[in-house]
Amino acid sequence: MRAEQILLIGLTLLGAAFVLGGQSLTFRANIGFGPGFIPVVAGISLALSCVFKLLGGRRFAASATNKEDVEDQPPNYRALLITLAILVAGTAAMELGSVLLPTFLIIALLSWLVAGHNLIRTIIVATTTITVIYLIFSVWLGLPVN
Amino acid sequence: MLDLTDLLNAFSLVATPENLLLIFFAGLIGTVVGALPGLGPSAGIALMMPLTFGMDPVAGLSLLTGTYLGTMYGGRLTAILINTPGDAPAIITALDGYPMMQSGRGGLALGLSAIASFVGGCFGLIMLIFFAPIIAEYAIFLGPPEYFLMMLLGLSMIVVLAGNDPLKALIVTLLGVLLSTVGSDYVSGEVRYAVVPELIDGMDFVAVIIGLFGIGEVLLNIEKRVVLNMGKPRFRMGEFIPGRSDLREACAPIMRGSILGTAIGVLPGAGATIATFMTYIAEKKLSKKPEEFGKGSIAGLAAPEAANNAAVPGSLIPLLTLGIPGSGGTAIMLGALIMFGLNPGPLLMVQSADIVWGTIASLIIANVFLLGSNVLLIPLFVNALRLIQRHLTAIVVAFCLVGAFAINYSIFEIWIVLIFGVIGYLMKKADYPAGPFILALVLSPLAENYFRQSIMIGQGSWGIFVSKPLTTTFTVCIITVIILGLIKPFLSRRNVLKAQP
User: Fold this and answer.
1) 3-class DSSP state for residue B281?
2) Phi, psi of A32 (to 5 degrees)
3) Domain count, chain B
């Protein structure tokens, strides 16, 4: 499935969800509009626009060129999925308390598995980056990044 | 009428070695903070606030305004170097700055943007000094209908002018409007769509832009196997100093950006982000080479960069003369004024004229310092990037994640970054413009408030939007833009058909 279709289907569902969720909000109040007016109107408009685009209705652009059509290299979906898995697992690990340790692991894994660097270089890059981050955010700015 | 002796006296008050050192370091700190994804002007000023405790008001405000101006210089660094804007106003900088970087003109982009920032800042300061009372007096007469229509005009223009396909721009704009409704409603106080408690205050805008621009770009580069190749580190100052032809090309856009930036910056709620968007749109419209915009156009880089820095003194005009903050950064500044025992409002310039003029004098000094330090720092930043170019993916991801955490010290913001990273990747892949989405996300809460207030003022009648000459002018402009947007695709289609043999 193309990226555009995934995006449009997701946005259609999001628009519909906002319209449904907006039913519990006040739409019109006395002489003005309630908190439900903008989300419901925007949700309907978004869902309809996406459906219109999905169904391949009249194209608004005459010369629009989709970037997907002009790629000259085969897409590296494997690396993309590995990156997403590392990011999700790393962020989930942050829920355990530490931010810097999972970030160190994310840098190391991305450098090793995605960028293809050797282990020594990977460790040097990860250690240096995390040290710089610690010095800036924790030591200098005094933020609770542990 | 302005008495320049006030300003001259202020210079003698500010120009002590301690204050000069303070302003210099405030500018440098602001530059670095502004360059860090996730930490913009508001964060920079907020982080500096504790340091001002115990300082005299002039020194304290010098530190804060120097940091504020510094963040505006800093935001462009990461926008140009790694396509990750440090703050919202730098989003537009990335549109042409990053393509210049990719085409081997990164040094030129950084040099040019520093000069544009300096000129914009100077222009804004001159306006602040000479026209503050006049502009502020006029701005006070603008009511909710004018503000709403102005914002609607901005949104309509960006939908029509962003990219080749207005429907794509409309879809992302509606997405921005929709997501901006999450959280507490400012008018009624009702909580909307807050499925988790963290969303009660709404979706954090900074987390959204980090995800959309930082992680989104990283994911796309990984999928497309893009690897930076900037060569080995070298120090040639000439690479970073724009040539005469580049300066000539940038001159008029810088001046236009400075004027527009100051004018928009002065409007409460508008600020540097809208100033850069509007300037970019106007510049693209005026350009003889609009097709170069988004691909490394000098005008597309210089004009918004000038507008960005011109908006800082502009946003200080309503703050210092009316006590109304024009942006997130100036809202924190308002807190600082109160903290120093001052009374923000029309009487501030009468009762505490020495402090107000001292702050303005320190801004002028900071702007000069920042030009020097930024030009000297450019080779350092570019060569640092050359050193780490093979590891940029992992480093950018790390800074994005930690920057997102630093917003509220919460992992929730990191999840937001990841979600919008995927959305950003899909949008880039399907060629959906991010600009309208961001503008809608920023503008919609304000626009919604002004819209609902306007309808209430008009006793439920939509006639409020054509009741005054100014509102009627704005309404006519919006209708014209919409009509142009509707006929634009048909005109383009006809031109394409004509061009085909």
Assistant:
1) helix
2) -135, -165
3) 1
Cβ-based contacts of A130 with chain B (< 8 Å): 398
Choose the mutation target among A18, A49, A60 for the interface with B, i.e. most B CBs under 10 Å: A60
Q: How many residues does chain A have?
A: 146
Nearest chain A residue to B39 by CA distance is: A137
**Angle (CA) B287 B292 B296, round 5°:** 115
Phi first, then psi: give them for residue B183, nearest 5 degrees: 110, -170
Tens of each residue's pLDDT in chain A, 146 residues: 588 899 999 999 999 999 999 898 888 877 788 889 999 999 999 999 999 998 875 454 444 444 444 456 788 889 999 999 999 999 999 999 899 999 999 999 999 998 888 899 899 999 999 998 898 788 877 778 88
How many alpha carbons fall within 13 Å on the CB side of residue B342? 29
Domain boundaries, position B244: 4-499
pLDDT by residue (tens digit) across B208-244? 878 887 888 889 888 888 765 555 555 566 666 778 8
The single residue listed with the structure tokens 């093979």 is B390
Query: Are the beta carbons of B116 and B254 closer than 8 angstroms?
Result: yes
> Which residues are registered as beta bridge partners of B192?
B183
- Residue window 87-106, chain A: list those with CB within 8 Å of chain B: 87-88, 90-91, 94-95, 99-100, 103, 106
List CB contacts (< 8 A) between A103 and chain B. 398, 401-402
